[in-house]
What we know:
Layout (H helix, E strand, L loop, with lengths): L2 E4 L2 E4 L1 H4 L10 H21 L4 H26 L4 E4 L4 E4 L15 E3 L5 E2 L9 E7 L6 E6 L6 E4 L3
Antiparallel strand pairs: 1-2, 3-4, 3-6, 5-7, 7-8, 8-9
Amino acid sequence: MRILAAGNKSVPTPSAQLPARRSAGFTLLELLIVVAIMAIATAGVGLALRDAPATSLEREAQRLAALLESARAQSRMSASPVRWRATATGFAFDGLNGTTPPLKWLDADVQAATAEAVVLGPEPIIGPQQIRLVSISQPSRSLTIATDGVRPFSVVAGTP
C-alpha cells in the first residue's frame, strides 16, 4: 500500500482502497443459473410449438388438395377417369396407372366426412365437387376442399 504525503496528512492511492480480486472467468454458480434459464426457455418454446388439431387438419386439407390436383392432371394426360374415394383407413385413387399416391392421412385424428366419390377427369371441366374433412377428437372442427370445376381444388372454411 502506497501512501502519498500531502502536507501533514497521508492520503491512500485508489489502488490501495480496492481489495485484490482474481478475474479468472465465471463462477460455477453463475454458469448453473445460465444453464437453468436456457433449459426453462427451451422447454417453453417446445411447448409453444406443439401441433394443434386445427393445424394438423389444415395441413391434411392442403395436402389432399395438392394430391387431388396432381391426380386431376394425370387423368387429363392419360385420358382416363380418376376417382377419389374415402376408405376406412384413409383414401384411395381409382384409375391411376403406374403411380401410387399416398393413401393414408398423416394424422390419425383426421377423417373424410364425404361418402361419395369425387371424379377428377379426364375432361378439363369436371363440375363442382367438394370433400369435407373433420377432426375425430374435435368433431366441431372441419374444413372443406372444393372446386367449381374449372379452378383448382382449394381449402375453404368448414360447414356443418
